[in-house]
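## tool: complex_structure
## caller: assistant
## args:
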Amino acid sequence: MSRPMLEIVALEKTFGELKVLRDINLRVATGEMVFVIGPSGSGKSTMLRCCNRLEEPTSGAILIDGKDIVGCSSSALNRMRLEVGMVFQGFHLYPHMTVVANVMLAQIKALKRSKDEARERALAMLDRVGLRHRAETMPTQLSGGQQQRVAIARALALDPKVMLFDEPTSALDPELVGSVLAVMKDLKDSGMTMLVVSHEMGFAREAADRVVFMDGGLVVEEGPPEEIFANPKAERTQAFLSRVRA
Amino acid sequence: MQDFIRLFFNLEVMAQTLPLLMQGLWMTVKLCAAVIALGLVGGLFLALGALSHRRWLRWPAFAVIDFLRALPPLVLLIFIYSGLPFAGLAISPFAAVAVAFFLNNSAYYAEIYRAGIQSVPAGQTEAARACGLTTGQTLAHVVLPQAVRNVLPDLLSNTVEVVKLTSLASVVSLAELLYSANMARSLTYNASPLVLAALVYLLLLWPLVRLVSRYQRRLAA
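## result:
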């Protein structure tokens, strides 16, 4: 493997006495889509949130394109966060702004783009997720699936090198999941590096390059999706997959 | 009955004292502008202090807010106007009232801001920070606009209280609306100027009170 776009080295996270992550090591190559699965409480979301320091790691290093995000100053952190896009389970669009303003805000304030430039870029990104025609609506007028696609456009507008997805379809009605997954698939096909925490096993099987199974704050097993799903080696993986399928 | 009208609703006296009352009203307006503007700014800083995760900021902010909310505003005013000169700090009536009520109202505005900021889901801050916005940018563009919208009725309601509070300034001989009306009363030996002042307060505040009710109903819906 050439230098990975995202590399997690010996990551640990404790909340008081509770060890949520113990020695996580993970590499995501440029253009790779890695799926993280595991039971709730396994630490997968915490690991993801450490990658842009929404959660402060207790120890370890996280390299984004070779630069460590863990030790850096707060101003350097703000710059590095521009390289790491994040999509949340709950969308978290700004409800007091139009859709296009949502996608423009960080471009103007953090990237210092001009209003015109930011608007042009925002409309292009909304076009990419199929929502250019909703640019002037307020987020609450949109369906959950549409809101999540706007959230993806908001992250993409900053030209990130890596995209993190924290259960992006878990809050959606089943019939709306497909549109979000289609956007993610399109992103992957365009070469985006993606780390995805999700329970969409079917999508993982179809689109992921690699699947990582986490449990108890550890990476238990990782491999190509067909191998993990058809032939899990670890007992805990087998138990989890049989529970999910049942 | 005729005496009643002559003493309380004497149009002639009202017309005669109207210029004096208008001068008083102008002073009330200036006072409100100062106290409301200062209070809104001071309250925001107190609220941010109270919500800080730094203990050395949070605890003093809470102490100041509690102290100012527990202290009667009139006590504060008289202390500043009549007490501080003993320490060689003599200030004008206007400055004394402005400072006293600014302090008092900062605490109330702070509590309202605090509730507003806490009503904005944590996910909003996380989304903004994840997009590379600084703490200040997140506050200014994402959190505060939502926070203020959520507590707008309370902010307005407190502002109505500020306007009413300024009538206490008459105690330190500041010629605002009530003081002017009372002076007119003693000059004309007639209560009509006081009735007129009450009407002016009503005219000024009633639309605001209606507005608050409408907002509250809309937010409840």
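## assistant note: The mean pLDDT of chain B is 95. Chain B has one domain: 2-220. Handing back to user.
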